[in-house]
Design goal:
heterodimer; A: 414 residues; alpha/beta; Rossmann fold; Dimethylsulfoxide Reductase, domain 2; nine-stranded mixed sheet; five-stranded parallel sheet; 18 strands; 37% helix; 18% strand; globular; B: 154 residues; alpha+beta; 3-methyladenine DNA Glycosylase II, Chain A, domain 3; Alpha-Beta Plaits; two-stranded antiparallel sheet; 30% helix; elongated
Chain lengths: 414, 154
């Protein structure tokens, strides 16, 4: 019997093998998905669709209010889109062009620099299918997929049998965790766990490079050189190695130069790839869509057809310097994800929020629209953490509008 | 977990054979292997002087009540459905190599021991498990791969 599989948009793994028992507008039972996915799919919303000042209104009034805010704003900001479909993201970029907006997403303080290096081919990368079929040395550096992407190890990176790795994890794969604490992933890696002090990543990179070149590895925190040499030997012997970088590593580096250095040496000695552990389901998609349109992955300002780019156009710097005067926030919650000293400026400017969840941001928004959940209530496509395009269809029906349709209406009204 | 000797110390030690075993020590071993339950020892239930011992022994075997016939317990409050155990279980891999063995959704759940339902692992067909039956071996594939120790054998 041919089974009907759905895509889970709970995280950037975009698992495409989810079975669902559903009614017309409710999901009753979910198979194969992890708890994150089940919670995401079953998130029911029996709430008003359009809110102005936290009071339910009709769609037309909310739209008029949005248009009024955007017309009055001299320098609006569009932020978020990490959980939106590619189609909605493209519409948002078009809208940004039209209203001369600053446009940015979470990647400016997360994986933006890594994704930029990947889309400009500065670092070798591969797909998760390659990892499953060929991967033999898998490094989780500053990442903890056991908690952040629960099915990462079981569906792609460590446990499954692949076409060239028939004997699986017991004999043919080595998983290494590098972290500042013994995470759940590190527990699975067992003896192959390197615990380093906070900020010790660059020194470990240099020590590994020394080890790979046959020199004595040294670190200021006296990590046993024998263990680093042992690790370097495993890396040298890899036929298809992958580094899954997490925010733990990115936040510890001032720039990506040490990572480039490590990848260069690793690829001289063996064969290594890099995949970022992106969080939300389509953050990578936003980066790639904006790159295709402007040549930059984030922190962009449109000004009468000219594209400006720089750290000053990222959300953090824009809010710090108070250069924006209205914010359109889609599927994101800067009040939770940004430091309070920076996010508090948002209280001074009108916020328009769109999203499927109630958050601190939606409560403080002048206008809020409860949109349909992408991948559950409406279809589209998204880009997985490794850059693979995944299309999906809606599972249930909803009365809530999709983000794409709202953008279209705003464009028409403007 | 306790051992057979400790249980023996709490039994009447009269070797009355009412439970069907030849001695109280044999009964203690039978309790450990789940062959018999504490209720099979009639003196333990009937005679008031053994009341404390009966309650203690029954208490020892309490946690296994929620377990399947073969003693596999899934702590549902800990499990978050990562599926490591489903993919790592050798019986699952042998019975569904292109489904769960390759990390995908199961193609046929009828022969699988572990499946994920509602984000939590569910044990079914545990009689297929390699830890039980005639040719049992001490397989621990599902336990060592669980990041949160949600699977336990009692």
């Amino acid at each position: 019997m041919e089974k009907n599989y759905h895509v889970c948009t709970g995280c950037s793994l975009l698992c495409d093998d989810i079975e669902v028992e559903s009614g017309k507008d409710t999901i009753n039972k979910v198979y194969t998905a992890c708890r994150v996915g089940v919670a995401h799919m079953k998130e029911s919303k029996k709430k008003a669709t359009f809110l102005v000042d936290n009071k339910p209104v009709d769609g037309e009034k909310a739209l008029n209010e949005i248009v009024k805010i955007l017309k009055n704003a001299k320098s609006p900001m569009i932020f978020g889109l990490g959980t939106s479909t590619n189609e909605a993201q493209k519409q948002a970029i078009e809208l940004g062009k039209k209203i001369n907006a600053t446009i940015d997403d979470n990647s400016s303080f997360c994986f933006g620099s890594v994704v930029e290096a990947l889309v400009t081919n500065k670092i070798k990368t591969c797909t998760l299918e390659d990892v499953r079929n060929k991967g033999d040395v898998i490094i989780f550096w500053g990442s903890n997929p056991a908690d952040s992407h629960p099915r990462h190890l079981s569906k792609h990176s460590y446990f499954p049998r692949g076409s060239e790795k028939q004997r699986g994890w017991e004999e043919e794969r080595t998983a290494i965790a590098i972290d500042i604490r013994k995470s759940h992933t590190a527990k699975i890696c067992g003896n192959y766990f390197i615990q380093i002090p906070q900020g010790g990543d660059v020194e470990l990179i240099d020590a590994l490079i020394s080890g790979l070149s046959g020199k004595l590895p040294k670190t200021s925190y006296n990590y046993p050189p024998k263990k680093i040499l042992e690790m370097a030997n495993i890396l040298k012997g890899a036929r298809f190695g992958i580094i899954f970088v997490g925010l733990g590593l990115i936040y510890s580096l001032e720039n990506l130069e040490p990572l480039f250095r490590l990848m260069k040496v690793l690829n001289e000695k063996s064969n290594f790839h890099l995949v970022p552990m992106v969080g939300n389901c389509n953050v990578r998609g936003f980066n790639e869509n904006l790159f295709a349109e402007t040549g930059y992955v984030n922190s962009v300002k449109f000004e009468n057809g000219i594209v400006k780019h720089g750290p000053e156009y990222s959300i953090v710097e824009s809010l710090k310097a108070k250069t924006v005067d209205a914010a359109l926030i889609i599927g994101s919650d800067p009040f939770s994800s940004l430091p309070r000293s920076i996010a508090k400026y948002l209280l001074e400017i009108p916020i328009i929020s769109m999203g499927a969840c109630e958050t601190l941001t939606t409560r403080k928004a002048k206008v809020h629209i409860n949109t349909a959940i992408s991948g559950v209530e409406f279809g589209g496509s998204a880009i997985r953490m490794d850059g693979t395009l995944v299309g999906f269809k809606p599972i249930v029906e909803t009365k809530n509008p999709s983000e794409e349709s709202i953008f279209k209406k705003i464009m028409e009204a403007l | 977990m306790t051992n057979a000797m400790e249980i023996y110390q709490m039994l009447p030690k009269t070797n009355c054979k009412k439970c069907g075993k030849t001695s109280c020590m044999a009964f203690a071993v039978a309790l450990m292997t789940r062959e018999l339950t504490p209720d099979a020892c009639l003196p333990l239930i009937e005679e008031p002087k053994y009341k404390d011992s009966y309650e203690k022994i029954s208490g020892l075997f309490q946690p296994s009540e929620g377990a399947t016939d073969t003693g596999l317990i899934v702590h549902e409050d800990l499990c978050f459905g990562c599926g490591n155990c489903v993919v790592a279980c050798p019986v699952n891999v042998a019975n569904d190599p292109y489904g769960v063995g390759s990390g995908n959704a199961p193609k046929n759940t009828s022969k699988l021991i572990l499946v994920i339902e509602e984000g939590i692992v569910k044990a079914q067909k545990v009689d297929e498990c390699r830890r039980f039956g005639k040719n049992k071996i001490l397989c621990n594939g599902c336990i060592v791969t669980c990041p949160v120790e949600a699977i336990e054998f009692v």
